[in-house]
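User: I'm new to structure prediction. If I give you an amino acid sequence, what do you actually give back? Let's try with this one:
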Amino acid sequence: MRLWLTGAFAAVSLITAAAVYFFGDKPQALIAAVTIGVLAGLLIAVAISHRVVSLARAAGEMAGGSFDHPLNTSGPDEIGDLARALDSMRASLKESFGVLSSDRNKLAAIFDGLTDVVMVVDYEGPVRFSNSAASRLLDESGQPPEVVLPQLHRAAEVGFSAHPALRIGDRAYAMTARSLPDERAVLAVLRDRTDELRQELAEADFVSNAAHELRNPLAGISGAIEVLQSGAKNDPSDRDHFLKRLGEDAERMNRLTQSLLTLARVESRGAPESEPVDVPMAIKDVVAACAAPAHVELVVDVESDLAATGDPTLLRQVMIGLLTNAFKNTPPPGTVTVRGRHDSEGEVILEVIDTGTGIPAGELERVFERFYRRSESRKQEGFGLGLAIARRMVDVMGGRIGAESVEGEGSTFWVRLPIAQPSPTPVA
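Assistant: Good question. You get back a string of structure tokens that encode the predicted 3D arrangement of the chain. For your 428 residues, that looks like this:
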């Protein structure tokens, strides 16, 4: 700016000297000097104003977040120095905002990739931020469910709140909320614990049921030993009776232990290496291993070129279990059919169909639960583990298992496995 003022003063001095030289010591000289000086000053002011306005415009663009347009930094005066300083600041801000934008995008990608629900809610109520997982909880207007509001209010008041299992719809969520005082908002994180809680309940039921099933034969063994020790061992008939009971209870415990070990092995087993299974050959082995009871007809209807992807040993065990159950629940005269066919969806369907007692509709969905025994079969031998083991085996093979039944008419248990190309040589 000092250069501009010095230049303006020099220009006015030169103009005044020129006017005196041409017009002499006359009033016209003074008028001419003043007029020319005003014009020169106006031009200089316009030039200065233009550069200042240009800098102000650039500063406004930077304030609005635009850092892409370099400033005109020409000129050796103070305005040029200011322009160069602003342009240097623009370059630095552009770099800083670029880093911040990149970090923000990474953080947004991380939040969107989380399975946990993350949201930031203002003290006044509106949701300021939410990730993709939160979309299933927010209503149409973007508000959180009412059940979480007390936790949000508590966090806003005392700084923190938590709940181990909030029920939202048919799911259970663990929630933690922390106040952000500087933002006047609450950060809430909700984790879906539904499957975890179901697993915990299933494990608790499993332990309880296993203990219950073991308690009965143990009580029988203890009672028989006590009676024998009290003198029954001296009576041959009593001794034989209680020894027989001891043998039956011991065998029952052995069968239960074997079932539990089988289930534990299958539960801990990862997905096996899939291979083509020759289904007709596998069913032939199954039929050979399961003799049909008297007056129950066994019908086998399996397509000759049927091949599934799975594990041949597991498949045989599953089908033996289903066929044994069908025989057990089909009073004579009756028919049990083993059917195998291709499905239009690219799967192999294996069915065991009986004409037995059927399963009540209310119990059909529970027959695959551990230790569950339907009312009709509770008087029969068994622990309710066979179908649970079969379901886990099918899961390990990457297939599905299910049942359909009409009470009093019979049941159909089916297994679906991925289809495979038939092998030129027997593979199972």
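You can read the tokens as a compact description of the fold. Here is one thing that stands out. The mean pLDDT is 77.
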